[in-house]
């Protein structure tokens, strides 16, 4: 059967197929074009973003470079300022020397002229005109002498101001020196170590001006003078009263309410007047009646502190007092009380807190200060003036073997916490201190019949509920520094970060663990509302002593060795700070560990050197003055924050 193929139909079918293919190709082209457009858009987007990122990075780099530049400029300016201050100081010193020379010359001329006037007056009549001329010259010279004296005084004041600025700029430790008068117990006659027949009571240490002290080190019997000169911020002579000594300390106390910790420490050999300077003593009354109390730095500081507080709004500040004794390298809380409320010293720990500061742990809320199981022994109170060799005591006993009072029967919770007492007046402060002072270890030695055998640290903690602008600015400054140092630390709450970074902190409900906030219930107030706590530490160190001179034996000998070791640890710490060594051996003694913040931190520290003036103690006096010179060389930085809380035993 013939096969009919309808060509038209086949072509039509083929056309249909091709048309279909064409349509789908066109659709695909359309799809691809749309995708292409989308990709273009994304590309443009990405390019824009990239450009913006580049611009931001460039800006950040420029900003960083600008900041580096500014920092460099500031450093250079500071360096320049310091060298200018140095040059100025030198200039003032030179000018001062010239003035002194000039004034002396004028003095001599004036005296000479006065003598001539006197002589001329005796000459018979007729020389009146000459006498008058001479008198006029004398008057003119006296006037210019007076003017020079005035200028000299102004220059002196300027020099002092410049020096104080330098001390502030460098964070140096201030060092004052007090040379006590020669006292009856200095006057035991004897041969000097050199054996040249001079008496030991000869006065060899002298305050020659208000900032220099001179030690005459010449050997007795030789004609060559050998003098050593030491310079400090202020030097007090034997005639200076307790009041005059405190007047130079007073400005430091203002800093306490401006957010600074302050520490005043008396250093010197035994019998040199540390306790007299810090606490005070009674004057000898010739009539045998009770003497006049000569208040030292501690009572006068308490007075001044409460005077400053009384100028502030009522209830804005509160003050707590604590008293610590470091005896035989152990820390004792002297305010700790027994069940009957009597004061008993209790042994405490020193810890390094997470903020890098040293503390005797504060009283835990709701717990009573109780006697620790290793309570403080009651010190021997020997009747002086016996020599130590006269009492029957075992040689060099370890501290643990000394008698301990039994633990409090009703005190299962033996928290080693430091006791603070709230006080409202300086009289209350002194009452608290005087009630526990009898616990301080004392013993008679051949050098001093009432020698302190321990270091005493009285701390006044001031809580400012409405701190002043300076204190707030300082707290923010500290917080900023901390944020720069350790921005990752968990104790920085977002609010705290914002406030420290300079932006306003919104009232936050999250608890903040910043060390710049004092303990207070959650939610904490903002950084500008939290109370500020500052410390005034007043330290009466035990005196260094030469065993050969003090003639100590037994327990007293052991005490002397502990005292001398802790003082040499203090000296080592200052040496390390002065040489800016990376490791400062604070932990070599409990004393230096306890005072770590004050010595190495940003507390305002004043060391009061106490010096005996006589030949007998010259070696110790030179050592004390050397210690002060080393302390002056320390240029401090704020202490660094530590990561962990560490307990030492
Ligand atoms: N500037 C002074 N004016 C008058 N008397 C003073 C002066 N300084 C000290 N004294 C007297 O000297 C004696 C010894 O002084 P103080 O007890 O203060 O010495 P110290 O350095 O504390 O000794 P130690 O370290 O052994 O305890 C005391 O009787 C004191 O009254």
UniProtKB/TrEMBL annotation:
Cellular compartments per GO CC: microtubule cytoskeleton
Positions with biased composition (Low complexity): 501-517
Primary location: cytoplasm
SMART domains listed in its UniProt record: KISc
One GO MF term: ATP binding
GO terms of biological process kind: microtubule-based movement
Annotated positions binding ATP: 268-275
Keyword Cytoplasm: yes
InterPro entries per UniProt: Kinesin-like_fam, Kinesin_motor_dom, Kinesin_motor_dom_sf, P-loop_NTPase, Vik1/Cik1_MT-bd
Subcellular location: Cytoplasm, Cytoskeleton
The UniProt record lists the keyword Cell inner membrane: no
Kinesin motor domain sequence ranges: 172-634
Region (Disordered): 355-416, 500-527
One of the Pfam families matching this protein, by short name: Microtub_bd
Key words of the record: ATP-binding, Coiled coil, Cytoplasm, Cytoskeleton, Motor protein, Nucleotide-binding
Pro residues biased stretches: 394-409
SUPFAM superfamilies: Bacterial hemolysins (SSF58100), P-loop containing nucleoside triphosphate hydrolases (SSF52540)
Coiled-coil region: 15-42, 131-158
Family statement: Belongs to the TRAFAC class myosin-kinesin ATPase superfamily. Kinesin family.
Name this polypeptide is given: Kinesin motor domain-containing protein
């Amino acid at each position: 059967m013939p096969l009919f193929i309808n060509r038209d139909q086949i072509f039509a079918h083929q056309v249909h197929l091709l048309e279909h293919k064409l349509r789908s190709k066109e659709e695909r082209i359309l799809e691809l074009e749309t995708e292409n457009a989308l990709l273009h858009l994304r590309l443009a987007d990405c390019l824009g973003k990239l450009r913006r990122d580049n611009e931001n990075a460039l800006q950040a780099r420029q900003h960083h470079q600008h900041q580096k530049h500014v920092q460099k400029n500031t450093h250079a300016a500071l360096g320049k300022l310091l060298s200018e201050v140095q040059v100025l100081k030198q200039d003032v010193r030179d000018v001062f020397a010239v003035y002194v020379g000039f004034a002396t010359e004028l003095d001599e001329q004036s005296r000479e002229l006065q003598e001539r006037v006197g002589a001329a007056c005796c000459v018979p009549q007729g020389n009146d005109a000459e006498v008058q001329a001479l008198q006029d010259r004398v008057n003119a010279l006296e006037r210019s002498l007076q003017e020079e004296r005035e200028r000299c005084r102004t220059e002196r004041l300027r020099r002092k101001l410049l020096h104080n600025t330098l001390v502030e700029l460098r964070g140096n430790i201030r060092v004052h020196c007090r040379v006590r008068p020669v006292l009856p117990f200095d006057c035991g006659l004897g041969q000097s170590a050199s054996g040249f027949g001079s008496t030991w009571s000869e006065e060899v240490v002298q305050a020659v001006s208000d900032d220099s002290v001179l030690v005459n080190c010449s050997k007795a019997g030789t004609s060559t003078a050998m003098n050593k000169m030491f310079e400090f911020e202020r030097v007090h002579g034997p005639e200076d009263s307790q009041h005059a000594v405190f007047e130079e300390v007073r400005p430091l106390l203002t800093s306490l309410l401006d957010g600074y910790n302050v520490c005043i420490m008396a250093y010197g050999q035994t019998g040199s007047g540390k306790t007299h300077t810090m606490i005070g003593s009674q004057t000898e009354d010739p009539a045998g009646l009770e003497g006049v109390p000569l208040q030292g730095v501690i009572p006068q500081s308490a007075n001044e502190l409460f005077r400053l507080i009384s100028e502030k709004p009522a209830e804005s500040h509160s003050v707590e007092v604590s008293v610590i004794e470091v005896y035989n390298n152990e820390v004792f809380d002297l305010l700790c009380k027994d069940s009957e409320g009597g004061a008993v010293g209790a042994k405490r720990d020193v810890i390094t807190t997470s903020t890098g500061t040293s503390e005797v742990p504060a009283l835990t809320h709701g717990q009573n200060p109780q006697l620790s199981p290793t309570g403080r022994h009651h010190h021997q109170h020997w009747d002086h003036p016996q020599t130590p060799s006269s009492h029957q005591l075992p040689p060099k006993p370890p501290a643990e073997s000394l008698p301990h009072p039994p633990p409090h029967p009703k005190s299962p919770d033996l928290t080693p916490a430091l006791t603070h007492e709230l006080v409202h007046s300086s009289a209350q402060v002194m009452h608290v201190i005087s009630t526990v002072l009898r616990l301080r270890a004392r013993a008679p030695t051949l050098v001093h019949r009432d020698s302190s055998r321990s270091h005493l640290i009285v701390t006044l903690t001031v809580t400012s509920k409405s701190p002043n602008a300076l204190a707030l600015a300082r707290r923010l400054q500290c917080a900023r520094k901390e944020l720069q140092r350790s921005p990752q630390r968990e104790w920085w709450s977002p609010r705290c970060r914002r406030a420290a970074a300079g932006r306003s902190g919104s009232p936050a409900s999250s608890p903040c663990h910043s060390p710049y906030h004092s303990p207070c219930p959650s939610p904490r107030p903002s950084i500008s509302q939290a109370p500020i706590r500052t410390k005034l530490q007043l330290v009466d160190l035990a005196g260094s002593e030469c065993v050969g001179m003090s003639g100590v034996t037994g327990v007293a000998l052991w005490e002397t060795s502990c005292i001398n070791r802790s003082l040499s640890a203090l000296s080592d710490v200052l040496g390390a700070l002065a040489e800016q060594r990376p490791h400062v051996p604070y932990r070599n003694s409990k004393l230096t560990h306890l005072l770590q913040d004050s010595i190495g931190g940003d507390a305002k520290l004043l060391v009061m050197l106490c010096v005996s003036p006589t030949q007998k103690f010259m070696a110790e006096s030179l050592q004390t003055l050397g210690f002060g010179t080393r302390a002056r060389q320390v240029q401090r930085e704020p202490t660094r924050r530590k990561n962990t809380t560490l307990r030492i035993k």
